[in-house]
Amino acid sequence: MDLSNDTVIKVEGLHKKFCRHLRRSMFYGTLDVSRDMLGLSYRADRLRPSEFWALENVGFELKRSEALGVIGSNGSGKTTLLRILNGIFPPDGGQVAIRGRMGALIAVGAGFHPNMTGRENIRLNGTILGMTRREIAERFDAIVDFADIGEFLEAPVATYSSGMTVRLGFAIAVHAAPEILLADEVLAVGDLRFALKCYRKIAEYRRNGGALLLVSHSMQLVRNVCHRTLWLEHGRVKQLGETQDVCDAYERDVLQRSVAISSREEIVRVNLDPQVSIAQVEFLDAQGAVCNAFPVGAAFRVRIHYAAQRRVVRPIFSIALLTVENITVVANHSNFDAPEMCGDIEGRGCVDFAIRSLALKPGSYGCTVILAEGSLDNNLEWHERAYRFAVINAADTHMNGLYQPDVCWEKGVS
Amino acid sequence: MPEPTPLPSTPAARELVIYAPDSRRCMSFWRSLQVMTGNIFRSHELIRQLFIRDYLAVHKKSFLGFAWILLAPVVATLSWLFMNAAGVLQPGTTGVPYPVYVLVGTTLWGLFTGFYQSATQTLTAAQGYILQVHYPHEALLVKQALEQIVNFSVALLVNLLAFLWFGVRPHWMIVLLPVTTLPLFFLGAGLGLIISVLGVVATEFRRVCEVAIGLVLFITPVLYNPAAIGPRFQAVVRWNPLTHLLETARSTMLTGTVPDPLAFALSALFALLVFLLAWRLFFVSEHRVIEKLF
Fold first, then answer.
1. Which of A42, A111, A185, B141 has the most beta carbons within 10 angstroms of its beta carbon?
2. What is the DSSP letter of A290?
């Protein structure tokens, strides 16, 4: 395989298979080991019973100074990919070519001995990560400084807090000066001060020509750090391209899936008057079409269909919109917002609740709809978070708050 | 803020590494030997650090510390002496006082089983980081063997003290011990390496081998002189390669003789072949085994 001058990782047609059943997996293992030993060739690119592709036909390239994000749901093959790149698992098909020293920020501090002091563990871990004795001596002070372990340097690692252990592990790993850095969710560790230090260190490392492969579930982190992103799904490449495009597509997919899942969930409905009911609730877009996913800032309308077999005097319609974490972001009652609309109702009909600009953070939201009569405590029907919709990030924005209004920055005069 | 760490640009660091299916299986036997030996030489610092970690750090917490290494052979010898005094053992004439004979025998046997045991743990001893960090695992085998050699050296000191006590003068050929015990390393480490690989994919192998080694102790003249036993049993003992490896190592220490040079040479050759076979097995299948470890 040829690598252009700037390329540090090139993966082509990568396949990896695993076995679902433990006993069978051991049997295949024995078989493969025997064949390896006897030098017999066999078709590794075919699946045997109970086997599945953990990675199937994965390909990408990573260049110097570049950061590639790897995203995907649990079980999509991200960790397997990292292990193959790191040379721990062999591929079952395709090829991986790597040029340069590889460093892994996966389970930092693995290999620490609890009885040994911080000083001894720096020497040990540095050596495991491929540093020479001289390199360790040269960078020793920088490591201690970065890890910020102070007087604990001469204490056994067993006496360290978990945060200190991780800080020390991370400090050693980044000072091993790899040309390629594989990172798996590690930046989520430590306190804020240390996390910020890590970001700065990684930025500096990239400026010096280092390449980064970052596996993360945090879209914010991937958006901030990575140029390009690889989206894995069931071991296959679903999308590979500009981070913004891939992350948006991924988020849309996750949201739509979560809406689809929750729409199958049992709807919580309480009816206290059999003669009156909320017959149907729909979400409508600006054109009045039924819709379940709305871009940030789009017009949003909830249509509540009711059926009343008797006259309902001074009906009150209430609506609440909630995040998945159960934070109420919108809660409105028709009697306060539109007292003129409080005329009695009978038979079938509908009312609309409209938001001109749905300035919410992309995510999945639940909607609670309530019909009461006369006062808010006289409920007739209550649909608790019975409806779901998604807000998607259609525009290229970098806002992270729950409320995403139309904003601008201006230079002030002091 | 610490100084930025420059990235290495040496040719070694920019070497192209290719991972492909079967890349190890397709490598020739001699080439794989070269690769592994090269890895060991390059990893000398890693071996040193792992040795410090696993050998020295373990004793930090115990009150007796390194006295444990001395205690093991002494206690083992005492138990055999007790059995001898009780008349359970009939070792035959041993040429030297029986305690010395047994002490040397058990020390050598301990070296063999130590090599075996530590080699079986080549992959499992590093469970904490074998899935996280990439490094040559051959280094672990060497580190494990080094621990055994240090244990053996300490036990040898106990032997020499016993020599003094019983008025036995070791032959100058005792200096050849590194050569005469080398086949014990080949056989023990070879069997251990095979088990370190096969024992993961089929756990039965590990158990069968452990039971077998326990039995082999009795068909190896560790505790008795083979001349003192019946002819049928003697044939079994004679076909056991360990008999010749152990007897040669012991005789050179005590009398400076090699009882059966041809049998020793053949046994040593057998041990070397087992080791080379195991080495190759380890090379082609270690990654496949690591996959199944967890």
1. B141
2. B
Instruction: Determine the Cα–Cα distance for residues B213 and B208; give it in Å rounded to an integer.
Output: 9
Sign of CA dihedral B274, B279, B280, B284: positive
Nearest to B45 among A88, A116, A133 (CB): A133
B131 min Cα distance to partner chain A (Å): 6
Distance CA A324, CA A345 (A): 33
Q: Which residue has tokens 């005069």?
A: A413
Could you give the count of Cα atoms lying within 13 Å of B226 in the half-sphere of its Cβ?
A: 24
More confident residue, B289 or A111: B289
Instruction: Give the mean pLDDT of B136-146.
Output: 87
Q: Closest Cα partner for A20 from A47, A41, A39, A58? A: A47
The shortest CB-CB distance from B132 to any of A106, A113, A146 is to A106
Contacts of B280 in chain A (CB under 8 A): 37
Q: How far is CA A234 from CA A10, A17, A132, A395, B147, in A?
A: 21, 12, 40, 28, 45
**Cα R_g (chain B), whole angstroms:** 22
Nearest chain A Cα distance for residue B58, angstroms: 8
**Interface-testing mutation among A24, A25, A113, with chain B (most B C-beta atoms within 10 A):** A113
Q: Identify the residue with better confidence: B47 or A400.
A: B47
Global ipTM: 0.76
Bridge partners, residue B216, by sequence: none
Q: Which residues of B touch A127 (CB under 8 A)?
A: 45-46, 48-49
Residue partners of A346: CB distance under 8 A and separation at least 6: A308, A310, A311, A312
**Rounded to an integer, what distance in angstroms lies between the CA atom of residue B145 and that of residue A122?**
24
Q: What pLDDT is recorded for position B90?
A: 64
Tell me the residue length of chain B.
Answer: 294
| Nearest CA-CA partner of B183 in B241, B227, B144, B223 | B241
CB B40 within 8 A of CB B144: no
d(CA B252, nearest CA chain A) in Å: 37
Nearest Cα residue in chain B from A127 = B46
| pLDDT over threshold 60, residue B10 | no
> Distance (Å) from the C-alpha of residue B242 to the closest C-alpha of chain A?
26
**β-strands A67-71, A211-215: how paired?**
parallel
Are B184 and B108 a contacting pair, CB within 8 Å? yes
Closest CA to A199 of A187, A183, A207: A187
* Coil vs helix vs strand at B20: coil
Q: Return d(Cα A160, Cα A12) in angstroms, integer.
A: 43
Which stretches of chain A drop beneath a pLDDT of 70?
1-2, 107, 109-110, 186-190, 258-267, 394-398
| Residue A137 near chain B (CB below 8 Å) | no
How far is residue A135 CA from its own chain's centroid?
Answer: 36
Query: What is the pLDDT, as a whole number, of residue A158?
Result: 87
**How deeply is A82 buried, as exposed, middle or buried, from its count of CB atoms within 10 A (0-12, 13-18, 19+)?**
buried
- What CA–CA distance (Å, rounded) separates A126 from A137? 10
User: What's the Cα-to-Cα distance from B55 to each of A117, A270, B48, B119, rounded to whole Å?
Assistant: 15, 68, 10, 15
Amino acid at the residue B109 = W
Q: What is the mean pLDDT of residues B94-120?
A: 87
Query: How confident is the model at residue A351, as a pLDDT?
Result: 94
What is residue B6's predicted lDDT score, i.e. its pLDDT?
A: 42
